[in-house]
C-alpha cells in the first residue's frame, strides 16, 4: 500500500534573536539559575514588531508551497495546529478560526479547513489525521501548518518568577517559529510514513497549564511541574516507541535518526539513557539524536518540523534514512511517528522543488456512520462540569470511545494548553488506547468533527468517536453536549461546505485583558446570523445536487442556532422526531463566513 509522504516543508524564522542570558537577566527578581547549562538553549528566535501567530503560520505555509509542484488550489485539507492565537499587541483571536484566514492568505481556496489543538503534539495530531484520510483516499493533499508566537509568555514570567523552583521557569525556554508540512500520497511503499500513533494520558493534565495571568499586569503564562512532566513524557513516549517498533517488526537499530520533542538538552539526554535501558542496547547517542535547542529553544508545535528542516539542510539527516519522531506534550499526549525519507533532504539542500503530481482521488462512499447516543448539559458552571454531565449521559452503559474530539471554543479560564479533551479525559477517567484533541471552527466545529469522525470510522482508523462541546463565554449560552458516533445503518451520507470570503471581516471574537481581568469581546452575533441565513439555501442546494437528492426527499432541515452555538446539532438531534429512513439535512455555520451541510439518513 502506498504511504503518505512529505512533499514539502516550510519554516518561518522570526526576525529577532534573544539570548538566554538576557532572558534570565530580564527577570524582575534576581534568578540564580544556570538556565543555559540546564537547557542547552543559548538563544532563541522571537517575533518582531508586527509579527504574530497567523503571520508566522502564513510565511511557513507560503515557504512550503513554494517548494512544491502542488498548487495551493489543489490542497484538499488545511489544518492549523497553533496553540497560540495571538493576533495583535494585546489580544488572541477565537473567531474566525485561524485556518479560515490562512486559507485565504495561502490561496487554498478549495480546502476544507479547521483549527486543531493538542498542546505540543498538535502538529503530529494533524499529521495523524491527514495520513488516515490520505491513505483512505478521502483527500489527496493536506497542508498542516502552525505559527507559534509564544515568547510573550517570557515577558509575563519575568515579572512573576520568584525563585529557581517557580512553576513558570519553563516559560523562559520558549521561542517562536512557523512550520508547515505538505502531505500527499507516495508513489511506492519504500518511502514515506510507515507508522504514526498517539495516546492521551489525561490523568497527568495538571502538570502543565497555560492561560491568562491573574496578576494586574496581565499577559499569559505557563505553569509547569517540569521534573514530573519530563519523567512522565520520557517514560511513556519511550514505551510507546518500543510498542510501535514491535508492531512494525523493527528493532531500534533499524532507525537512523531520532527527533524528540525539543524541550531541553537535559531532558533529551535523560531520554537517551532511558531508551537505551528499555531497548537493552546503546542505540541512541548524540550522533543520531537531533538536538536543535541551542538556537531555537522550545518552539512548541513547530519544534519537530523545524528540527527536521535544519537537520536536513546541515546534513545531520540524509535522504533514504529512517527517522523516528518521539512525541510528548502536556495533557499528557505521547506518540511515535516512523518515517523513511525520500529525496526531501537533498531538495532542501539544493533548493529544488518537488515534481510530484497531485494524485487522483476516487474515494468510496461513506460507509454507515450514525449518531448512536446523545448527551446534553445545562446545569454546569464550568467547562469541565458541562462536559462531565454531557459525556456521562452520552456514555451511560457504553464502552469508552477510541477518540474524543472537543469542539467548544470558549473555555473556563481561557486555558490555551493542554487540550480540553485531555483535561476531560483525565477528569472522567478515560484512558488506555485512547486519543483526545480539540477541533475548533466557530459554530461549525461540531459538524466538522462529525465529518472527521465519519471519515475515520468509515476508513477503519477508529471504531467509535465522542464529539463533545462546551461553551463558557463568547456571548453564547452556557451549554454542553456530546455525540457518540459509531458504525451502523443509515447515518451520515455526505458533507459539503463553502467559504464566503467577502464576509471574513464581518465578525470577530477576541480574548482581551483589562485591569487584570481576561474576557472575550465578541461582535454582533445577530448580524452574523442574518448573513448566515441568507447563504444557507445556496449551500444546501449544492449539497443536494452533489448527491443527486431532490428537495422533496428531505424530511427535515436542522438549522444552526447562534445561541446554542457548538451544541446546536446535539440539542436539535435529541428532540428530532423522525422515522427510520427519513433524510435529514444538518446545517452548521462559522464566522468567516463558512457554511457546512450534511446529509443524514435516520
TrEMBL record:
Protein's UniProt keywords contain Transferase: yes
Superkingdom of origin organism: Bacteria
All copies of the Beta-ketoacyl-[acyl-carrier-protein] synthase III N-terminal domain together span: 114-196
List the Gene Ontology MF annotations in alphabetical order: 3-oxoacyl-[acyl-carrier-protein] synthase activity
UniProt KW keywords:
Acyltransferase, Transferase
| Chain ranges of the Beta-ketoacyl-[acyl-carrier-protein] synthase III C-terminal domain | 245-339
User: Which residues lie in coiled coils?
Assistant: none
**Keyword Transferase assigned:** yes
| GO BP of this protein | fatty acid biosynthetic process; secondary metabolite biosynthetic process
Give a Pfam family name: ACP_syn_III_C
Gene3D superfamilies registered for this protein in UniProt: 3.40.47.10
The protein's name in its UniProt record: 3-oxoacyl-ACP synthase
The upper taxonomy is: Bacteria, Bacillati, Actinomycetota, Actinomycetes, Streptosporangiales
